[in-house]
Amino acid sequence: MVRLRLYDILALLPPKTYEGSFNALLRELVAEFTLTDNSANTTTSLLRSLCHYDDSVLLGSWLQETDHKSIEDQLQPNSASGSGALEHDPSSIYLRIPVGEAVPGPLPLGVSVIDASVALFGVVFPHVSYKHRLQMLDHFAECVKQAKGVRQQAVQLNIFTAVLSALKGLAENKSTLGPEEVRKSALTLVMGALDNPNPILRCAAGEALGRMAQVVGEATFIARMAQYSFDKLKSARDVVSRTGHSLALGCLHRYVGGIGSGQHLKTSVSILLALAQDGTSPEVQTWSLHSLALIVDSSGPMYRGYVEPTLSLVLTLLLTVPPSHTEVHQCLGRCLGAIITTVGPELQGNGATISTIRSSCLVGCAITQDHSDSLVQAAAISCLQQLHMFAPRHVNLSSLVPSLCVHLCSSHLLLRRAAVACLRQLAQREAAEVCEYAMSLAKNAGDKESSGANVSPFAPGVSSRSDIHCRHQGVNITETGLEGLLFGMLDRETDRKLCSDIHDTLGHMLSSLAVEKLSHWLMLCKDVLAASSDMSTATPLSGGKDEESEKKDEMDDDTMFTTLGEEDKSKPFVAPRWATRVFAADCLCRIINLCENADQAHFDLAMARSAKLRNPTNDLLVLHLSDLIRMAFMAATDHSNQLRMAGLQALEDIIKKFASVPEPEFPGHVILEQYQANVGAALRPAFSQDTPSDIIAKACQVCSTWIGSGVVSDLNDLRRVHNLLVSSLDKVQAGKGSSSQLYRESATTMEKLAVLKAWAEVYVVAMNIKKEAESKPKRAIKNTDDDDDDYGTIDELPPDSLITLVQPELPTLSRLWLAALKDYALLTLPAEFSSQLPPDGGAFYTPETIDTARLHYRNSWAPILHAVALWLNSTGFTCTESTEAAVSGLQKRSASISLNQASGAMASAKSLPEINKDRMHLILGVSIQFLCSPRPEEPMEHVTACLQALHTLLDSPYARVHIAEDQLIGVELLSVLHRLLLTWNPPSIQLLVTGVVQQIVRAAQDYLQEKRNTLNEDDMEKESCPVLGEGGDSGGLIPGKSLVFATMELLMFILVRHMPHLSSKMSDSPSHIATKTRLSEESARLVAATVTILSDLPSLCSPAGCMTILPTILFLIARILKDTAIKSADNQVPPPVSAALQGIKSIVTLSMAKTEETQKQWTALIRSTLACILEYSQPEDSMPTPDEVSMLTAIALFLWSASSEIIGVQSLQNGCMNRFKNALNSCDPWVQAKCYQLLLSVFQHSNRALSTPYIHSLAPIVVEKLKAVERNRPASNTELLAVQEGIKVLETLVALGEEQNRVQLLALLVPTLISYLLDENSFASASSVSKDLHEFALQNLMHIGPLYPHAFKTVMGAAPELKVRLETAVRASQASKAKAAARQPAPTIHSAPTIKLKTSFF
């Protein structure tokens, strides 16, 4: 036992660590497997696994995998396999079984020690010197010589296993075997065994020869070995050497590959074809055909020239060799499969030769399919599978699929495996046809059905008797179809490969068919999940009736073993096993996802109902919601832990997908509300005392999803689920030592972190609801629809509902969250800082389970970080950790929970600023570390949570000051965000990043403003004042240290990502396609956010710094304005345009940029920007029409904000006037109206020098346009608006004019207005717009008269006809008002009491 443990441990360590002890170790190992000190002839059990899997056909069918392998193994000569038992090595109870190893347990100790020594020999051999290798190989030959009889066989078996293990180790280490003498010694050993009468030794020798050729890798060595075998085969007549050397040829080709052994191909093939025709010895035929198959497989396309002769030989032998020689037929099947693979996709062709080859292959498949031996049939199925892969049109599925379905009932494992593997491939492409043909089998069988018709798909293992019944009757398929049969097989099959293939087959069928046949698949899953044995449902109900349940147990056993249930045929015999039910629950989740990708109607009850009405065959998921909930509930409350996990997962998926689906019959409610009780009942058992940690963790996740989904708004209903979380939080507070040590420590870590994560998610949702409620305007009175007053008041206060549940726990939670974050920060440190980890573990992990704990922290840190940021922001960094924690009784808790308080004294030693600083460093450290390089498989929620946490954190004044004081933190954060953008594409993440960038820039702005204010106060009396802001006196920005530079780099990246033509590098590159499509809504929002931040940047710079960055910023803003200000039908202003206009305004009004030193540069910048915008507003032929209104607004912004010296230049002035003239003459009334509004603001400009030229140039056009309205009255509201805006401009001009010019100005305005009045006859027939114009003109005239009485009289006196028109209009207006007043009924006096009566009923 000690030696066994020693060998096992050394095999796990790197050989370099015990290099010095190789000599002693090798002596021990060699003695072990050469049986030097062992009188018994014990043989190793590893030889089978070291030989190639395919070679089992040579060793007899008893070695092939069967359902009764363990019995066959025990019948094997000189082998201990099959005699495993726990008492041989109790450690196997807790050690993991390697994948693929048989379960019966550890072999007898003598065998296990030899196995371990052989395995270790293979590990050590590649590291041993050539001298020692030679000694050992010679020693092996000596040992074989000395032993006699049975002992010689045993020693030889062990030695060959060790040599194979060593050669395998050499190949894996890419080492060579050694010089000539080592090779010679090895060859002598191997070649001797090729003539051994024991087939397994011949097999091992062939395998060793192939591996040697692979390790040596020299052409001459390979040629020598091949030639030796050729000579032997030509001369030898005995069966043993012929079989051994033919296998040697196959193995050489297998391990050296087609290219390495190409020159020997012709000879090898001709010899093996000749041997295969030796009808006197089936054994020689088997071995030579097997080798031939190996050569065909390894040569690939190089074998193409020998396909025809090989194929004709295979067909001939299939027809001539008696069926009783099953091994020969098996090898013929293998050859056929290898040939099909070699010809490959060519099989689809229509040439004469290809057609012949294809039909020969099909004939060969048909012959092997009809063979009585199941292994030959399995070979036939895999040949057909290959054919289907390369030439699917030529394989007849209508006959293949039913035969495969029949084979699914076979008693032979390999045949069932082959059938399922083939079905798996067929279902990938043609799932619908496969299911259809399978159902046709059931229909045909229906006619001949006997009493066994209703075999349930979930029946227990079908015995071989019913297998024969199936073969002839074909009744293994019922109305559940092939899917039902496969689900039933999952309960019976134990073979890993077979079960995995069944899972895949069902998965492919599900992907193709589930959405169309939704009810069928949901029923299938429901049957599997609901078919729990009666026992499980009965036990909770029967309180003390133990006898009854025992009887029930016995009855269950009886029914389990009756082959065909006579009493109740419709009932399944035994419940599907938990693994099948877990798979069914996973299928349920997959169906939900498939429906989500298929059609939105699956998640909209109103749409689903109308679709069902239109077409009753329409099947939509939302109509099956009650079934989904029921299935998830059944799984989540089962007694199998894996099934509970799957059920909780399904429940979480259902809540996420259906949370927002409205209930059409009850507006304002969602469809899931009616299932509150089910969800609560499904979750409650998961929080019981004895539940494993992974289930509690999952249940917490479902709780937080349910609470956060907003399905339940009533506090009392939420409390049921909320109390479950409260109870689990109490467990977390209990500290490390208290929990029952049923599971290991990392399970406790997982559970506690899951609880904290769930609370964090709930808190985040609660704060979001609160924030939304605060931002909404308060509603005064509840609408009176509610029947019930109380209900109204509850509904009135949703904002606080959730937060009131979390608030009481916050003091405890915040402390635990911070502790968890600190743990996570320490655990993410690189390996070289491991010395900094606390020796006794963290708050929630122990040092022993540190690696598994990392995984749990990685899953839960992000929501916790977000919650901590929200909590710190809401408390404003004013809470110390211990203030409120003390209340909850610190004595009960173990010291490990508190962050850093080993005692109360130490906690109070840190002042609040220090604690806050630590917290800031913790949060920023964790965020930066994560955002630096999030792994691609990281869920997107983690990235968004981290960015939202940063955004929230920077809302608080303390955090803003902290990040602004140390500029390098900001720069570091920006470069990390830039890096994140390079690797993460989704627009939602980019938007969040711009939000964080904006927060950083605002923080820096506030901080700088503060400094400027204090400086201004201090330096009022001083002459010189230091220059604040980036860029200093020189204007230089240092990359890596400058916040402005880092921000611009990041923003430029976003802009170029969405508008590539902004970068000349991008637009000049050959891969760039110059398409200017409209920005998507998300891109538009992103570009707008970017422009907003860009325009904030100059305020962070000194005047000289401004001059460095402004050219870039103004260029970008002008270009973005040009590219996004495109005319749209609805005259909407896109977000980037309004952001650009806002940016222009804030930059042009920058006060600090205009110092004496920078005046000249500033003037040039503003002028050139305006010139650019004037140029961009010119319509071009190839470009879309620019939006004149936006361009005019930009021009007007310059005119309002910049001084006349800067933009009073003649050329710019003319350009601006031309743009206004074009707009005034525009045929679009909307543009005219906006133009009048902008002109109004320009005319009113306080600087007369700036506005006067515009008044002189544009006022005459305005007057003309307004005069023309008399002839062409407005026909639409927009046209009317344009006229009204124009009149406002004229009125403003009148008001601006001096007293002596007022009469002339009124002489323009008053006649124009009077011309808009209608006379009595035309008023009645005029359109409503025309009437509105009349009313507008009349109102204005009534308003102007009293304002300028003297001038008004003068104008009216000069033109009597105007006076008449005005008087007529006034009279008509007064008359219509009087009429309207007469029509109205007199107000009733007793109206007040009626209102009173209405509101107070009692």
TrEMBL record:
Pfam families given in the database record: HEAT_HEATR5A (PF25468), Laa1_Sip1_HTR5 (PF20210)
Q: Which InterPro entries match?
A: ARM-like, ARM-type_fold, Laa1/Sip1/HEATR5, Laa1/Sip1/HEATR5-like_HEAT
| Example of a GO biological process term | intracellular protein localization
Entry coiled-coil feature ranges: none
Alphabetical keyword list: Repeat
What are the boundaries of the region Disordered? 535-556
- Renumbered to this chain, the Basic and acidic residues biased-composition regions fall at 544-554
Gene Ontology terms, cellular component aspect?
cytosol; endocytic vesicle; Golgi apparatus; membrane
Q: Which Gene3D superfamilies match?
A: Leucine-rich Repeat Variant (1.25.10.10)
Q: Which domain of life is it from?
A: Eukaryota
Q: Which family does it belong to?
A: Belongs to the HEATR5 family.
Q: What is this protein called?
A: HEAT repeat-containing protein 5B
Please give the organism: Sciurus carolinensis
